[in-house]
Amino acid sequence: MSNINVGALQNNLQSINSNINAVGDLVSDVQAQVGRVSQDLASTNHELVALRHQFDEFVLQAERTANVQRSEVKLGVLKDDLEREFGHYGVVRRSSLGTLQAFDAGLVSNRSVQQVSEELMIQSPRYWLAPALVALAAWSRDDEELAKRAVDEAFSRDRQKTSLFFALVLRRQNRLDSATRWLRQYFTSLDPRALHREFAVVLEGVAQDAFGPAGRNLVLDQLSAWSGLLREESAIAEEQVIAWQQEISIQRGSVDDDLYPYLSAMSPQWGDVKRSLEHASALGFTHDKYRAILDAQPPASAKIEDQMDDLLEILITEFDTEELPRRREISFHEAVVDSAGDLVRAREAAEAEAEALQETLDAVSLVTQTAIRPQNLGISSNTQRLAIGANKADFVLGTGRYAADYRRVHRSEVDLTLGPNHSNYASTLGFSSWTVSTQLEQGQAERSLFDTWDAVLAAHIASVSFKRSTLVLPIVATVVALLIGLIGGPVLMLILTLVVGGGAYWFVRSRKNRADAAVAEAERAREAAKAVSRDQYRSAVAEWVDSGIVYREADARETDLLSLIDSWPTLTTETTASAA
Amino acid sequence: MTDHTSARRRTVVSDAAADVVMQGRSTVARGYVSDAHRLRNRAQARSTEIAAAVRRLDVEPDPVARQRILAWIGAEYDARGGGVLLGLFARCWLGSPYVDHVLTLSGFICEHFTAVDSPPGPYAGARALAGNDAYEYIEVYGDGAVIPIRSDGRSAV
Fold first, then answer.
1. Closest Cβ–Cβ partner in A234, A401, A412 for B157
2. Per the confidence metrics, is the pTM higher than 0.90?
3. Residue A445 needs a FRET pair 20 to 30 A away by CA distance; which of A133, A277, A533, B78 works?
4. Is A559 in Cβ contact with B129 (below 8 Å)?
5. What SS3 class is residue B146?
6. How far apart are CA B95 and CA B110, in angstroms?
7. Cβ contact (<8 Å) for B156 and A412?
8. CB–CB of A334/A75 below 8 Å?
9. Are A182 and A166 in contact (CB under 8 A)?
10. Which of A37-46, A186-195, B22-31, B45-54 has the lowest mean pLDDT?
11. At residue A549, what are phi and psi to the nearest 5 degrees?
12. Is B29 among the domain residues?
């Protein structure tokens, strides 16, 4: 026993000691790095969530752009098709107008007109305008026989358009009586439940006073008789109100989530709030649109020939039924381009457009479509103004219903939620979630938020602080070493005790330091974490209040719109004004 | 501080007075009326006096005068022939904690609701509409129709 080389043992002990120290340093380095990694993980998580949002937005944007591109291509194809299939009608149309103007000026010989009209008759089968043109040519040559036959032919091809055409042509040549006779003939062939779209020309004529007083009275009497008959059925009256409702609905704007970043992120009812805002905005836009229509300057009244030419042009270019299916498709694709790829909005707009592009409409709906969608019927803003005046009651009801619909589901309070990832602090310190209603007073809400944070921090500190249980292992190891040493001899016991005891002491010490550091870190973060969450809550509440103000302002525009409609001139007020 | 206990305020007209008015109502002719006819009647504009009477009712302190106004409103609505009117729902101008109230014409009860109460059955959908400034009061009919009325007596829908 006394021969044991103490010096060598001591050297070995020292080297073991220094190795342990080195290991200890390495372990603390690793510890620090692990701490950094966990912090980086938390912020990576945060960034991942943000990236996910951006990606979803990008996908939506890409889809919409693709929709727009597809629609633009399709539009080009459809317009080409339309041109190809019905383009030759354009020649006939231009020739008829040209013929009439040539007669005025007396510059073209009868022979050439006859030749052109006969050629066109051959080139456009089934088209009613071609024999009508032949009739005009024969009329100018005083060839009564041919004129009669040509009129009969045109009449058999399309009775209504031919009657209207000759009514306008005769009016143009100042044969008022004959024109009125043709007009009456036109009306006898009409079914008020299924008027063809060229009836809009008659409305246009009335607005421009093109048929003279006899014709005007004929038209207005007929219209009011039809209106009274058709409105007996509540279904038709309902359809008009719904048409106005749809018109207002299409005018609504869209709200970008970026305008309310905190509210949109924190409120589970954000969708409803957004819908309320968007629907309320429609009232203001509708008011502005119809104000512009009311204030638009009527064009200077032209010579009767020019007026008639305009009407004739509308009649012969706008209304061929074979083109309508293509026109409906075109209007859908134009709506997609207008709404920047939002297919839902586009379909809504296209369905409303399709109303005016139907083959037949009843008399009341025709007047409504004249008021809402004049461009689809090819008429002027003057006629639109008249038609709106005729249907004021429907417009008022449509406005009231539209407003009541979104007001009924408006939320006067919403919930605000702070989730586990609302801030870096929240994710590192294990924040679960906190929900509050906007109805709760702000001071109370913030107190509740702070209480939640205190609970979270208490739980976190409890989980990271030094526990008595960590003492167990080192103590057991020291006791075992002592026992082994007792067996092995006093020197061995001394050595083992020193080694194991030192290691155990170091182990416990380092754990305690780490725990203390984590607790201190959490304490330092306490105020900052609370402040970050409280600021998010306050921003969300401020945005909620702003959205409430915006909603109320938009909602209040209903009064403006209603007073605009109430003050809209009706036919009677306009006639008395012009007579005065 | 809002009182969160549900404390509805009810004002009930005395039974004797109610009997007299109920007798008066029974003389109104109750023949068969078609749905379309009833809806057309309902769509007619109300006289401005009805709206004024509803406004007066809220602030009238005297119970006898209240009963008289309610009876008059009931008779007016009967004469319009627009169907069975359950009650009129409107915003309450009494202030906190009351938010809105309903005037039940069948029993001449005026019932007030606070912000945390949810109005019963047919009136539940009328709360959001009643809160809006554009409407004077909301008519609730026996067939489930909820019609907001503007201050000039025109129906909004």
1. A401
2. no
3. A277
4. no
5. strand
6. 16
7. no
8. yes
9. yes
10. B22-31
11. -65, -45
12. no
* Inter-chain CB proximity A409 and B128 less than 8 Å: yes
Express each pLDDT in B58-117 by its tens digit.
777 787 888 888 888 888 888 888 888 888 888 887 777 888 888 887 666 778 888 888
Domain that holds residue B116: 10-21+34-149
Contacts of A412 in chain B (CB under 8 A): 128, 131
Contacts of A397 in chain B (CB under 8 A): 157
Kindly give, in sequence order, each residue whose CB lies less than 8 Å from that of residue A344, ignoring residues fewer than 6 positions away. Answer: none
Q: How confident is the model at residue A398 (pLDDT cuts 50, 70, 90)?
A: very high
Query: How far is residue A363's CA from residue A226's CA, in Å, rounded to a whole number?
Result: 7
Q: Which residues of A touch B131 (CB under 8 A)?
A: 412
Q: Does the CB of B65 have a partner CB in chain A at under 8 Å? A: no
pLDDT at A572 over 70: no
User: Chains A and B: how many Cβ contacts under 8 Å?
Assistant: 36
pLDDT over threshold 60, residue A340? yes
Is A205 a residue whose pLDDT tops 90?
no
Cα Rg of chain B, angstroms: 15
Complex ipTM, two decimals? 0.76
Contact A555 B156 (CB under 8 A): no
Give A425-434 pLDDT, tens digit per residue: 888 888 888 9
CB B59 within 8 A of CB B101: no
Residue B133 per-residue DSSP state? T
pLDDT at B14: 45
Judge whether B61 lies within some domain.
yes
B16 touches chain A (CB under 8 A): no
Inter-chain CB proximity A407 and B132 less than 8 Å: yes
- Contact criterion met (CB below 8 Å) for A319 and A204: no
Q: How many separate domains does chain B show? A: 1
Lookup result for tokens 């009329």 = A139
What residue segments make up the domains of chain A, in order of their start? Answer: 189-411, 416-580
- Residue by residue, DSSP assigns A234-277 as HHHHHHHHHHHHHHHHHT-----GGGSHHHHHH-TTHHHHHHHH
